[in-house]
Amino acid sequence: MANTNMGKTITAKAQNKKAFGLKLKIFKDKKTNFYVGLGITAFFLLITIVGYFWTPYNPNAMDVDAKYSAMSFTHLFGCDNFGRDIFSRVVSGLGTTFFVGLGTVLIGGLVGIIIGAICGYFGGLVDEIGMRIMDALYAFPSLLLALVFVSLLGSGKYQVIIALGIAFIPSFSRIVRAEYMRCRDLDYVKSARLFGASHFRVIFVHILPNITPVLVSSAIIGFNNAVLAEAGLSFLGIGVQPPDASLGEMLSSAQSFLFSTPWYALCPGIVMIIMILGVSLMAEGVE
Amino acid sequence: MGDNETNILLKVEDLNIVFHDHKRPETAVEDVDFELAQGEILGIVGESGSGKSMTAHAIAGLLHRSEITKSGKILFEGRELLGCKRSELRTLQGNDIGVVFQEPMTALNPVKKIGWQVGEALRIHTKMSQDEIRAKVLEMLASVELDNPEEVYEKYPHELSGGQRQRVCIAAAMICSPKLLIADEPTTALDVTIQAQIIELLRHINRTAGTSILFISHDLSLVRQLCERVIVMRKGLVVEEGVCEAVFDNPKEEYTKQLVAAIPKVDFINKK
């Protein structure tokens, strides 16, 4: 009896080990990585969309009785120092974060593609001038550059998008330029020119579709960086302005209550980490 | 027929191409002169680096890089190509001059459908509607002897074989019925049976459409099969020029003799 039991536990252990091994294997497989990442991102996106229309509490409404209350079923992530529901604030903060991330990638990506494409395709003097300007932009740490723009344009959601978008142009333009330099002497580009296609047509109709894989993965990575940069800016108090919620802004205001109400800092922090992880996994899968 | 002055389609005079991208300037093409009549097939042969492809690229208008100096004249129907504006050149490219490259593997855009690529020159040079372009492309695909043009139209380049791709390239170059087709080693990347088919196709195009063909190759037997006249080039210079039979049967220059001496293997097999 004891023997059979032991046998069972051993096989169970072996099975466990096998299952664990399988799990590890899953994370080595890029395709699975992509789907896991996609799942996580889609989950947060769904929450954000739902949160746009409905949150359990008004994210900015204060309830004095619930001040500092811990995690419970009435307040899923607890309440902050003003008695605001942290879960609702995280959900609406996610919306801000997504919006800022996408906006940044859109501005940085669009301008970066145009500059990178022109520099990479024509080469020579155009390339030299364009890239030196990009180098100058790149030499600034992007956070610092964003700080400069925020101090010029004032703080707020849209200012953050413009500032981060401009700060992200150099990295996009460099990637795109490298791809165009690789492509411009390929035979199909030559033959496109020999069909009588204009430079504009060759650049955007013939070459651009060929670099989409690189573009997509760099856009995803850019999105990640934008989310982190936005959190950093809000943390420094120059991003999204209270009472509007954003993940970084919540972390920033939570730091004074780190020991008394740790969930205030932990919840937005963990949500942000998981979201970044999801997007990173997706980026890795795309590559 | 090439002797008639009015019939001259392409005239190259004193063409010089010099590269300046190294410390010492390198001359790729030196004092090249030739003429191509309407409906003629002219072969240019020579070893690698003899400047034959450079000459072709200069005619096609592909040499626009700043490190290159060009001098001489390239007259296409009396219009100077070498010094003209790019916008002017563009109206000729694809419309009056078509080019087929050596590597059919890389000459097609990997992310675009075959039909789209073949119709590209029409989209640029004419104001045809989508349906008209489609009809014309299908007609062209059929005329380069591709089976199932409808099916090929919807395919991507990687789904086709090398020979099929080269046919697609020829179709794309011929879609606007150009007067001149420049074939830059179109058969080098293909195996022998496909080579023969492509040569046959080029000859067919020449006969039916009256297109002049500038056929560049290092394969003398192919040139002899296809061309009426031939130019032998070496180190950027024209070594010998003349009617194909005469040049190959009684080579005057030492280099041509050496080149011809390299063919006998084929003759040997034929005699056997």
Describe this structure in words.
The complex is a heterodimer of chains A (287) and B (272). Chain A has 287 residues and is mainly alpha-helical. Chain A has a single domain, classed as Orthogonal Bundle (MetI-like fold), CATH 1.10.3720.10. In chain A, helix 3 packs antiparallel against helix 4, helix 3 packs parallel to helix 11 and helix 9 packs parallel to helix 10. Chain A is elongated and about 75 Å long. With 272 residues, chain B is α/β, with parallel strands linked by helices. In chain B, the strands form 2 sheets. In chain B, strands 6-7-8-3-9-10 form a 6-stranded mixed β-sheet, sandwiched between helices. In chain B, strands 2-1-4-5 form a 4-stranded antiparallel β-sheet, with helices on one face. In chain B, helix 8 links the parallel strand 7 and strand 8. Chain B starts with 7 loop residues before the first strand and ends with a helix. The mean pLDDT of chain B is 82. The interface between A and B is medium-sized, with 18 and 29 residues.
What is the makeup of the main sheet of chain B? 6 strands, mixed
Q: Number of helix segments of chain A?
A: 11
Radius of gyration of chain A: 24 Å
The overall pLDDT of chain B, averaged over residues, is 82
Strand content of chain B: 25-35%
| Rg of chain B, Å, rounded | 19 Å
- CATH class wording of chain A: Mainly Alpha
Gap between N and C termini of chain A: 54 Å
Work out the count of structural domains of chain A: 1
Biggest beta sheet summary of chain A = none
Regarding quaternary structure, what we see is heterodimer
Based on secondary structure, the structural category of chain A is: mainly alpha
Sequence stretches where pLDDT stays below 50 over 5 or more residues of chain A: none
**The CATH topology of chain A is what?**
MetI-like fold
CATH superfamily of chain A: MetI-like
Tally of contiguous helical segments of chain B: 12
